[in-house]
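Anyone up for a design puzzle?
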């Protein structure tokens, strides 16, 4: 008998999607099986991470023995965790490609500063080294000993002031906490000497916790970013420090800088914050939100910055303070805040919420209605400056109210300007106008006023009406003058009917009356006003002759 032929089984058929899916799995498996040549795990470098001290002397008899493993070590009392992390940084920086140092969960004890070597800006590879932990709460780098002034937990090589002080840097540090030697809790607590992170160009700090340093972040040069960081219990959260070269263009996004013992941000007189963006940041729970440190400034304190949806919450001594400093070209959009005496430094004045020497061409838009809220203990005014020119308060309802209620029995005025006060315009809900200094004789709220050079005085028969004083004050005070919209205006004793055309009253040109006359109309009464009533609401129709 012949052998019976067996039926042929057709080979399995794979569709294109199945083939591509299988290929992707094989490639992913191969990728997982191959270690990333650009990543170094700290535990593989000999770090312990149990929170306790492990000096190199535990493992090595002599410094020479230690340097065979850690060539950068200089003493046997240096911590093994520091030696492992610094060694990983140096190895990646010298690899020609850079890479990432991964720091597993743990509490790593360090007693020297970590240094990121400088980069050559013309090198296309950049040789960047990044440091990434496992989460802000799970990976902690701790310095229990104060390294002293001028030292940092982590810095760029160019921060040592040596011949490479202009070195270029680019790095990302993410998902971990740097814990300094002395976390502060109350205003006035003595700060440590050492700082936290000393940044240069193009640092990205992403989801970092930084606590217990003189300054959590020390800013130098340009284009660095702080993203979703919490920087608290330091003396200063972020410091634009002395002797640095900050070209601006920094980004702080969703940064929590509340709860530092002096200020959320401080700026040395030699430095300034330029062309930077602060978006959704939280300042406060400290004496100052943004502080210009004492001394004659060498440059503008705040210049052409954007602060968007930022909160100056529970500041003790003020939101922005720099009595000798310039603040110009900035936009504060949707910002708000309050004062809270609990965070006040004793012996320091609470002159106002914003106190600067020069306030020029700044925009306050939306949210800043809270200028008038929570202002206990202000001594002078909400905004204090020697010169204020060309500022716009686009949401000035509360500022006008503070000006209206200011004085011995009603809080403080809106603005106090010692010298030049020009073109400072405000927009309220129902009216708009300009903050002007009061001229000779003073004014009362609701009176018609005329321009007297760069001042406002009670209206007389000799000049056209400029507007209506929304607050009263003696000569020299700054008050809001409404020039458009609906406002309450002082009137004579006679009754006025809604819709009446109103003019300056004969013999009392600072008040209005209904009827015909040679003077130009002021506006139209929008309500009835009974005989003997002090004011009538008027839709202003001001013209100049």
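Challenge accepted. My sequence:
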């Amino acid at each position: 008998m012949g052998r019976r032929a067996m039926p042929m089984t057709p080979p399995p058929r794979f569709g294109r999607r199945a083939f591509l899916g299988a290929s992707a799995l094989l490639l992913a498996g191969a990728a997982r099986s191959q270690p990333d040549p650009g990543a170094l795990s700290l535990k593989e470098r000999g770090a312990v991470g149990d929170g306790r001290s492990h000096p190199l002397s535990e493992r090595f008899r002599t410094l020479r023995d230690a340097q065979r493993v850690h060539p950068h070590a200089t003493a046997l009392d240096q911590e093994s965790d520091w030696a492992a992390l610094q060694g990983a940084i140096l190895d990646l920086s010298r690899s020609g490609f850079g890479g990432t140092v991964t720091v597993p969960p743990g509490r790593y004890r360090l007693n020297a500063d970590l240094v990121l070597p400088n980069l050559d800006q013309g090198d296309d590879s950049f040789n960047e080294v990044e440091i990434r932990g496992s989460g802000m709460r799970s990976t902690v780098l701790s310095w229990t000993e104060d390294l002293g002034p001028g030292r940092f937990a982590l810095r760029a090589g160019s921060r040592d002031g040596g011949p490479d002080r202009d070195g270029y840097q680019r790095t990302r540090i993410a998902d971990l906490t740097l814990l300094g030697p002395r976390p502060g809790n109350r205003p006035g607590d003595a700060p440590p000497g050492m700082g936290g992170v000393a940044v240069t160009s193009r640092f990205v700090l992403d989801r970092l916790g930084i606590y217990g340093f003189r300054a959590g972040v020390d800013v130098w040069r340009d284009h660095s970013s702080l993203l979703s960081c919490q920087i608290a219990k330091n003396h200063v959260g972020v410091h634009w420090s002395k002797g640095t070269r900050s070209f601006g263009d920094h980004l702080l996004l969703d940064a929590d800088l509340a709860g530092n013992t002096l200020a959320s941000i401080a700026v040395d007189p030699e430095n300034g914050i330029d062309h930077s963006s602060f978006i959704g940041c939280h300042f406060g729970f400290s004496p100052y939100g943004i502080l210009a440190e004492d001394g004659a400034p060498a440059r503008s304190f705040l210049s052409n910055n954007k602060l968007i949806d930022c909160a100056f919450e529970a500041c003790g001594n003020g939101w922005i303070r720099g009595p000798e400093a310039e603040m110009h070209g900035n936009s504060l959009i949707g910002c708000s805040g309050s004062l809270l005496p609990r965070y006040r430094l004793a012996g320091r004045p609470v002159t106002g919420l914003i106190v600067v020497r020069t306030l020029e061409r700044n925009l306050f838009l939306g949210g800043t209605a809270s200028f008038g809220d929570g202002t206990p203990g202000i001594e002078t005014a909400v905004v204090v400056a020697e010169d204020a020119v060309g500022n716009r308060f686009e949401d000035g309802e509360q500022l006008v109210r503070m000006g209206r209620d200011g004085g011995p029995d009603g809080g403080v005025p809106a603005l106090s300007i010692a010298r030049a006060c020009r073109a400072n315009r405000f927009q309220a809900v129902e009216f708009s106008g300009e903050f002007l200094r009061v001229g000779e004789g003073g004014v009362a709220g609701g009176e018609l006023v005329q321009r007297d050079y760069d001042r406002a005085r009670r209206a007389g028969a000799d000049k056209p009406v400029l507007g209506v004083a929304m607050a009263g004050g003696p000569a020299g005070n700054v008050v809001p003058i409404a020039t458009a919209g609906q406002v309450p205006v002082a009137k004579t004793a006679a009754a006025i009917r809604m819709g009446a055309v109103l003019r300056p009253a004969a013999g009392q040109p600072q008040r209005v009356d209904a009827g015909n006359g040679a003077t130009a109309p002021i506006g139209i009464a929008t309500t009835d006003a009974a005989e003997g009533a002090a004011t009538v609401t008027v839709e202003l129709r001001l013209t100049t002759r």
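A detail worth pointing out: The helical segments are 16-33, 63-69, 80-93, 397-405.
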